[in-house]
Amino acid sequence: MKTQSDQKDNSSKTKEETKKGTVQPSSDAAAGLMGLFEDSLKDIYWAEKALTKAIPKMAKNATSSELISALNNHLLETEEQIVRLQTIFDKIDQKAVAKKCDAMEGLIKEGESIMQETEPGVVRDAGIIAASQKIEHYEIATYGTLRQFAETLGLEEVATLLEQTLDEEKGADKKLTEVAVNAVNLEAAERD
Ligand code: FE
Ligand code: ZN
Ligand code: FE
Ligand code: FE
Fold it and tell me: How far apart are CA 157 and CA 92, in angstroms?
């Protein structure tokens, strides 16, 4: 049996938890996993589009031909990933809408400041690789989560499409590591 003092305790506990930094949901907050999944798709859709502008800028600033071709190859993949996301929006009967990704905006800005802070050549190349790998890791985390959400939601075809992109992001990251190990970092170290 619940007494009046039990009820009082419960309500004061809820108030206390709200005080401890709990974020108040906005009026359009996602209620279920499907809503969160859709919002995350919009976020990465914005991010991929932003990357179609950022990657060519990095390629233009790179010196190593291996790095330039790695970036250009990944630009083509990125364009395909945008189309793949449009297919996914279609499959879940949603309009393809981009919603600004604060994280990717920050990662791209960081890449730009690294370029400003380095002389063109092997050192700037090393900086471009570092910035690019941070970007790829963000994408790997995002697509890994999205694929898992799709599986949980029973969207098998969508999960397969997301896994294709996930594999491309992992491939791009691996390629950048190879470029760094092969030439760029060694040469950059010799500058000092
Ligand atoms: Fe991507
Ligand atoms: Zn984001
Ligand atoms: Fe961080
Ligand atoms: Fe990528």
Answer: 10
